[in-house]
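Weekly modeling sync, notes
Attendees: S.R. (lead), two postdocs, one rotation student

Agenda item 3: backlog of single-chain predictions. S.R. asked that every request posted to the team notebook include the full sequence so nobody has to chase files. The rotation student volunteered to paste the first one in as an example of the format we agreed on. Action items at the bottom.

Example entry:
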Amino acid sequence: MASPPLQHDMAPRLLARLALVAGASAPTVLLLAGGLRNLVLLGAGAAGLVTVAAGTWWTLTRTGPLRVLAAVLVVVAPLVVIAFYVVMNLLWVVLLSLALAGTAAGTGRAALAGAYGRQAAAEHWTPRPRRPFLVMNPRSGGGKVAAFGLVERARELGADVVLLDASRRQDVAELARRAADAGADLLGVAGGDGTQALVAGVAAERGLPFLVICAGTRNHFAMDLGLDRDDPRACLDALTDAVEVRVDLGRVDGRVFVNNVSFGAYAAVVQNPAYRADKVRTTLSMLPGLLTGHRGPRLTVRLRRTRIEAPQAVLISNNPYRTDDPAGLGRRDRLDTGVLGILGVTVDNAAQAAGMLRGRHARGLVLVRAGEAVVEADAPAVPVGVDGESLVLPTPVRCVIAPAALRVRVPRDRPGAPRGGPPLDWARVTRLALTRGRTTVLQPPP
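Predicted structure, as returned to the notebook:
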């Protein structure tokens, strides 16, 4: 497919040329400064990375003294490599080369974003709600609701607030439905992603706008909406000066998820009752059996054009996570692409674990996008993690995407408003750098 024409601007081409120069300079510095020692330098760095990857695998799959030795190896290997560079007077060379490589990636992405346009969800002005209804979980995030005075602030802004009772379990989805029946024109949650998903499902079902208040521990959904996770009070600004965006929702067997659904190793770990009390110890005790194939059902992920056989872990996300930039891993540039992101991992030994350093091209790593994914198993039911909540679902488990299903009301000014550029594609960067003249179509690359 031909590359789409570029915007009427010289800046993206200059950035693309800078990216190519920086990218070419990174290995050149190693070759010129290292001289004949550059092969030793590169070999030491590669050996250190492989050792860390293999050591990590052994740490996760072994127990007792072998696990301790592997963990020591993970820590010591990079220190040995750094010490070697210092002794050889090559540390500055490595740091300079890494800085050039980082500059190349950053300017390359900026060039493509400038040429083809930023990828951001459309924002629409929305009137102030007259009867907003908010559910707040006092236990989320170690007590952020009380620490930030969220109940008092929300009521000052005219919201009807229900504070969940920490002593008993309550059906937050039913609370939201009753509020909608009583005339609420906005539903919102101060809590973790699992609680957010339950009320978001009701908001989508009733066609009401949804308000996210990041009072949980991680709040990945809030992060990808650009909200300030360190200041939950700022989320309440959306009750006054706000814009509305349309985002997708994932569904797993009819249940809504805003972030992801996990199967396999992680899902089995969070199913353990001891996980909530001691996450690290429970995880370390269960992973050896799960990752070496001695425990857990055998999974198969069936997609429209492919199958993932016997993965140890599967992550299905509401829109794909970034994979082209290490600094952006774990984030989604957009929540409105209309597809699920599917990641399957199959690692049988330390050599394959080291091979994961190849990224998306690694053997045993599958990264695809699809509108639907079906997870099958050799068991009638499997443990599933849904936005961090532990469930057991009958097999097969069907995951689908519901495009533009949710209206989200967010503050007009928010610090992390997503403005992701197109994926880093060096072929496009090169074509952009070599482009001459002025052409003007603003279509982003597919």
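Discussion: group reviewed the output briefly. The two ends are 9 Å apart (CA to CA).
Action items: rotation student to repeat for the remaining queue; S.R. to check formatting next week.
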